[in-house]
């Protein structure tokens, strides 16, 4: 599975962005998908994940109520809608794929930069 993120950019605090992650391969619908982020000087952290069928989603406490993960298996794409952005959301955002719900993420994209100005 190859993953390519897009949609990052510069936005003012309180603004919105929608990240997309396009996956190659016909088995996309069988993978659980996640979003992670890494801010300068910090470790990569979990942001959100969605089960293979899209029925269940999970979020880091720091983004609950502001970020929403979704997927369109017909388009082999997973999304991260980001609202009410804060400067502390500034990071490189990565999508990842896991072979099982709750399993290890084996495939990673190259990341897309999100910068939130105050």
Describe this protein's structure:
This protein is mainly beta and 118 residues long. Helix content is 0%, strand content 52%. It is built from no helices and eleven strands. It has strands at 3-6, 9-12, 17-23, 32-38, 45-50, 57-59, 67-72, 77-82, 91-98, 105-108, 112-117. The strands form two sheets. Strands 2, 4, 5, 6, 9, 10 and 11 form a seven-stranded mixed β-sheet that branches. It has a four-stranded antiparallel β-sheet with strand order 1-3-8-7, with no helix packed on it. A hairpin with a 6-residue loop joins strand 9 (91-98) and strand 10. It is globular and about 40 Å long. The termini are far apart.
Q: How would you classify the quaternary structure?
A: single chain
**Alpha-beta content class:** mainly beta
Largest sheet: 7 strands, mixed
Number of DSSP-assigned strands: 11
Helical percent range? Answer: under 10%
The overall average pLDDT, rounded, is 96
* SSE run: EEEEEEEEEEE
Spans of at least 5 consecutive residues with low confidence: none
Report how far the terminal alpha carbons are from each other: 37 Å
Radius of gyration, in Å, reads 13 Å
Beta content comes to over 45%
Shape, per Cα inertia axes = globular
Number of helices: 0
């Amino acid at each position: 599975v190859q993953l390519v993120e897009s949609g990052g950019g510069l936005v003012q605090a309180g603004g919105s962005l929608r990240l997309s992650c396009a996956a190659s391969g016909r088995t996309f619908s069988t993978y659980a998908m996640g979003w992670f982020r890494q801010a300068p000087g910090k470790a990569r952290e979990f942001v959100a994940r969605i089960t293979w069928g899209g029925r269940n989603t999970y979020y880091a406490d720091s983004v609950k109520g502001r970020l929403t993960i979704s997927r369109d298996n017909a388009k082999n794409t997973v999304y991260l809608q980001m609202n009410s952005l804060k400067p502390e959301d500034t990071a490189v955002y990565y999508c990842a794929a896991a072979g099982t719900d709750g399993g290890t993420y084996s495939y990673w994209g190259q990341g897309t930069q999100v910068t939130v100005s105050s």
